[in-house]
From TrEMBL:
This is diguanylate cyclase. Its EC number is 2.7.7.65. InterPro entries: Diguanylate_Cyclase (IPR050469), GGDEF_dom (IPR000160), Nucleotide_cyclase (IPR029787), Rev_trsase/Diguanyl_cyclase (IPR043128). It holds the Pfam family GGDEF. It is an enzyme of class 2 (transferase). SMART domains: GGDEF. PANTHER family: DIGUANYLATE CYCLASE DGCM-RELATED, REGULATORY COMPONENTS OF SENSORY TRANSDUCTION SYSTEM. It comes from Pseudoalteromonas marina. One of its GO terms (molecular function) is diguanylate cyclase activity. Residues 179-308 form the GGDEF domain. Keywords: Nucleotidyltransferase, Transferase. It catalyses: 2 GTP = 3',3'-c-di-GMP + 2 diphosphate.
Length: 319
């Protein structure tokens, strides 16, 4: 791409992207063309509307890597539509915010020997705002309208990203133990009775309330999906199978103790497993479904680990 006075070609390049990773790559290419330097880094809050630490999507060796908490401090000091410049003896560092609806989602950090021109700075901010808007459009397209959770179409892609090694674990301060990804399938117990007794409007309200409890029970870097009907999927990080079980048990208990409008109480059943790199999405879901079915079959309002289920089967066979 060649530089152009209004950035039209760059805008087209960004707005035609329908995949987040491709959008990130396009942004890096556009900024490289615009700035004509390699020494820049981009930190973006990929959750768009939620308070989350920004993720590094590009950096070069001459720029010091920032932990998410450090990058967040820069964002907290930034002003929408205002560039910040710091001069040192050896170079100039320019901080350009990434804005969306008066919210700062990220920051572009550029190190140069000379101060970049006002025109380049203004055009970079314009390009970053176009990127942020396209990121928001992609984000909205992935959401289930009733619950605000990620939709079923996004589920397969996200699971594949993780099992093929393209998923990421966010660094966490003082986290010195390796974390793993887990998948849980959650189903509302006896939900048909809710619809039959109170109607679909109340049923939709119940689904939305359970979705909210799921979101509140997990970290912002985890993923919650409306898998279909009254079924949900959660892709989350945990250090051990026991920790994962405990997190899901807390969710089960909170749902069971929640006072739902019209129906007062209901319960959920859960099946879960650790994600492995050799698995396909269909085999992963099938294993989680088997664990979920075991929870349902043995009384509902339970959490079943696929790992423990497999171990118990092996014990029965050996006997």
């Amino acid at each position: 791409m060649q530089a152009n006075s209004c950035g039209h070609e760059w805008v087209v390049e960004l707005t035609c992207q329908e995949d987040e990773s491709h959008l990130d790559s396009a942004l890096i290419g556009v900024l490289g063309d615009l700035l004509s330097v390699d020494n820049f880094a981009i930190y973006i809050n990929k959750h768009v509307t939620l308070q989350a630490p920004p993720i590094l999507i590009n950096t070069h060796s001459n720029l010091t890597y920032l932990e998410p908490s450090q990058a967040q401090l820069i964002l907290n000091k930034a002003t929408p539509s205002k560039t910040r410049v710091i001069h040192t003896t050896d170079d100039v560092t320019t901080y350009i915010p990434v804005n969306h609806s008066d919210t700062i989602l990220g920051v572009l950090i550029i190190k140069t020997k000379q101060l970049i021109t006002d025109r380049i700075s203004a055009l970079a901010m314009y390009i970053l705002n176009v990127y942020a808007n396209q990121l928001w459009i992609l984000h909205k397209s992935r959401l289930d309208p009733l619950t605000g959770l990620l939709n079923r179409q996004t589920f397969d892609k996200k699971v594949m990203e993780i099992v093929t090694g393209n998923g990421f674990l966010l660094p966490r301060e003082q986290a010195d133990t390796k974390r793993c990804w887990y998948l849980a399938i959650v189903d509302i117990d006896l939900f048909k009775n809710v619809n039959d007794t109170f109607g679909h409007v109340v049923g939709d309200g119940v689904i939305a309330q359970v979705a909210k409890l799921i979101k509140n029970n997990f970290r912002i870097e985890d993923y919650a999906f409306r898998y279909g009907g009254e079924e949900f999927a959660i892709v989350f990080q945990s250090q051990t199978n026991t920790d994962a079980f405990n997190a899901l048990t807390r969710l089960r208990q909170r749902v069971a103790s929640h006072d739902f409008e019209h129906i007062q109480q209901l319960t959920i059943s859960i099946g879960f497993l650790e994600l492995q790199s050799a698995d396909t999405v269909s085999s992963i879901v099938n294993q989680a479904d088997m664990a979920l079915y075991h929870s349902k079959k043995t009384g509902r309002n339970k959490v079943t680990s696929c790992h423990e289920l497999t171990l118990s089967k092996e014990v029965r066979i050996s006997q």
